[in-house]
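Quick start: what a row looks like.
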Amino acid sequence: MVRFTKMQGCGNDYVYINNDEEKIDNMSFFTKKVSNRNFGIGSDGCIFIYKDDNNDADINFRIFNPDGSEANMCGNGIRCVAKYVYEKNIVRKKSMRIGTKSGIKDVEVYVEGDTVKNIKVNMGVPKFNTDILEINYPKDVIINERFDILDKEIYITCLSVGNIHSVVFVDNVDTIDIEKYGKEIENLDIFKDRTNVEFVQIIDRENIKVRVWERGVGETLACGTGATASVIAGYLNGVTENICNVNLKGGVLEIVYNEITSELSMIGTAETVYEGVLF
């Protein structure tokens, strides 16, 4: 018997497990079984929450995709983790430090009564160096670089904000064949462990529209790290301001790029869908 909580941020839904209590050993196998939308609970993956005395975080989590692969970070997921641990009295702090595979993130929760309504996550400083990103490419960075993808010339900007992302600017995200081109870009042989892909439409300098192709998942309603990557890519390419609203299929996130510290912040909601027990 395993107790779980289904949560979502902008429609990016995960199954959340308090692993200090449930003690799931084979997280990859568990996730593949549980995430299946026909034979399991159905989700974009599983997030396992646990305490670790070996680091300075208040709480930690690991995240697995439906194909069993492990991701480093999830912007929508970390907001849900903050809500989960605050409302369940695991970490009763309005400012908390949450450990991920890509480092410890500073998180602030905004509370009404006992309910977390909004969450702000310091996403850190973006990384662009191709060696750091483990991209096999002759240049140090990939910013608006041309690639011939199937029948199109596509210009890509690559960076990491916890996970690797490849951002593509298009005229209209609604008409792009996201599965065709997303899958192709995800699996380009320059990437050691594939890439997430964001297709971005500029509405104006303070508002963009994004569709997300997540590695190991396919198209999702939202991606917090992808939204963050899209804004900084837009800023570097001169098409967005440093503060920008990202309109995703599942909702809206506000992304702020601090021009002095080079840090990125993400602000958005998180919702509990339901709780249950697996037998």
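That is the whole record. The first helix runs from residue 19 to 22. The chain has two domains: 2-121+269-278, 145-262.
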